[in-house]
Amino acid sequence: MAAGATYVSIASQTLTSAASTITFSSIPAIYTDLIIVHQGAALTTTALINMELNGDTTGSNYSLTFIIGDGSSAASGQYTSDKFVGRNYTAQQNNIFQIMNYSNSTTYKTTLSRSNSAGNLVQALVSLWRNTAAVTSVRLFVGAGNFDTGTTFSLYGIAAA
Amino acid sequence: MTPILGIMASQISGHLATPNNYESIATVTVSTAVSSITFSSIPGTYKHLQVRGVGKSVASGIWVTLKMNSDATAANYYSHRLLGNGSAASASSAAGSTAGADFTTFYPTGSTAFVTDILDYTDTNKKKTVRTLSGYDANGSGEFNYMSNLWQGTAAITTLTFGNTANFEQYTHFALYGVK
Questions:
Q1: d(Cα B177, Cα A67) in Å, to the nearest integer?
Q2: Which of B42, B113, B137 sits opposite A64 (nearest CB)?
Q3: Closest CA to A63 of B62, B115, B111
Q4: What is the CATH number assigned to the segment(s) B22-179?
Q5: Distance from CA of residue A100 to its chain's centroid?
Q6: How far is A71 from chain B (nearest CA, A)?
Q7: A12 closest CB neighbour out of B13, B23, B54
Q8: Which of A75, A81, A110, B28 is deepest in the core (most CB within 10 A)?
């Protein structure tokens, strides 16, 4: 069996002022999976976090299924033509996005996401981008309001043997 | 400075780390449909294992199974599942079979992605537990699974066998990693 160290920090950014969108671009195709860790809070407005890949703004190329627990009940939902992948609360929380097999050019891209906000909910979500292109850029943006100052976004790459 | 990775918005603080605690051990990419994927001769030099993958079944079917060390004793396996199918959340459990424990679901209509952690896989004082997050979405259908598997063996794990009676489709990709 081959063996090699991986799980590499590619880039990170910390917001020095509130922003509604962040983008990682020119992502090299030398890894197999990407992981983005978001830690922070919304400035004033709770909103959904959306994801666009490779600048594709066509809503109908995106869909998702999620399961959620809000402290009193569990539920599941499903949307087509929707880029929703996470949640942005005014309380500190994290979202972890795992973009699987992002650098291949033969299959649609699937992302596994987890949202963890102790004061609000836990959520797990799978989303599909119906495009076979290798992912070279990821844009995360909120549907309303902003990511607050100090919010961090860290991008990692994992390379399979 | 022109960063290798372009970053827009706010402050840039890109950097490269020197990783040494998470290693790629082996990868299988299916070129023609197969009924099982096996990682064997897994070294005992790590603390935990992680398997990451994406794939489909060729034919309609549901469960991919996970077997440890080729142990075909059904009573040694058990699984629990928390499922969101797009309309409701539910929970279930299942006894094992000679193929192992129910690991996660694969379909022909959409790719299932999964991340699996196999904890303390070399500890000979513990039965082995596995946790998996997996999901597939096919634009109007799909599901998300939290899975837990138990193998009631205490031997160090040296072989993992993922079985699929509906066959793994071409391009299905399983990658095994070790965590120190």
A1: 27
A2: B137
A3: B111
A4: 2.60.120
A5: 11
A6: 14
A7: B13
A8: A110
Locate B1 and state its tokens: 């400075």
Residues in chain B: 180
User: How far apart are the C-alpha atoms of B176 and B116, rounded to whole Å?
Assistant: 9
Lowest model confidence (mean pLDDT) among A120-129, B58-67, B121-130, B161-170: B58-67
**Sequence spans of domains, chain B:** 22-179
Give the predicted TM-score (pTM) of the model: 0.92
Question: Which residue is associated with the tokens 């950014």?
Answer: A13
B14 pLDDT band, cuts 50/70/90, is: very low
Contact A26 B6 (CB under 8 A): yes
Contact A9 B8 (CB under 8 A): no
Residue B142 at interface with chain A, using a CB cutoff of 8 Å: yes
Cross-chain Cβ contact A161/B139 below 8 Å: no
How many angstroms separate the CA of residue A105 from the nearest CA in chain B?
Answer: 11
The closest CB to that of A66, out of B52, B110, B144, belongs to B144
Predicted complex ipTM: 0.94
Structural domains in chain A?
8-158 (2.60.120)
Which residues from chain B sit within 8 angstroms of residue A22, using beta carbons?
Answer: 7-10
Q: How confident is the prediction for chain A on average, in pLDDT?
A: 95
**Mean pLDDT, rounded, of chain B:** 91
Exposed / middle / buried, residue B1 (Cβ in 10 Å: 0-12, 13-18, 19+): exposed
Query: Could you give the CA distance from residue A41 to residue A58 in angstroms, rounded to a whole number?
Result: 27
